[in-house]
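=== RUN LOG ===
request id: a7f3
mode: sequence -> structure
chains: 1
length: 273
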Amino acid sequence: MKTREKEIFHFSFFTIHFFCTFALSKNKMKHLEAIGRYFLMIYEIFRKRTKWSIMKKLIMKEIDDLMYSSLGIIAFISLFVGAVIAIQMALNIDNPLIPKSLIGFATRQTIVLEFAPTFTSIIVAGKVGSFITSSIGTMRVTEQIDALDIMGVNSLNYLIFPKIIALLLYPFAITMAMALGIYGGYIAATVGHYATSAEFLEGLKLQFRSFDITYALIKSVIFAFVLATIPAYHGYYMKGGALDVGKASTVSFVWTSVAIIIIDFIITQILLT
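=== RESULT ===
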């Protein structure tokens, strides 16, 4: 085998081995059953679609609930995290032999490659994911989902498909996070006199690759699907009463975050190595 093929083979084997070991180590086949039920849920979501006249209203509502309401917190966090990254980088390269342009370079790379797509998604999982799980879980507890099924409505399509479509706008939020993160770093570096405007902008242009933006947007699309479906799974299949809705929200946040980190690792291996 060629070196590249060997690396892919070893990586795939490691990933499969990890998942199988983890799934079989606790509660026998519980985790494998959950994974299987999750993929069956994905299949059912796209069967027997709801009428477009109804779906259109549901999608607009989900865009408002999931996207518009999250833009403020994404913007706030991105601005200040970008500033912190720039300041920390400036303090760590406080050496006359190291060019100040590296502050802009490090800020751009950190924000674009990891913070904006990955860590923003984990933060959003706490807000959007918990909202999705609690709203669907409440419908399960109050038997509203059972009522939809009795009326012949595909409850999975009715409840989850609008959320998936709404979160297709997520890459725009990530683009905003990248821009504001870099802007926050620029303000912190220039106002704090860690670098001049010209030095910071020079670092932003240093070894810039348009593929880095593409890479971040690819991750954001995949993370958007995860943010819509894993919390929905935990809400739809939850058991118990009102108190268990809160527990389901916590569990969904944990598993959504774990899935995002694992997918981030896999995508990085595939696209950047």
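=== NOTES ===
The two ends are 18 Å apart (CA to CA).
Residues 52-272 form one domain.
=== END ===
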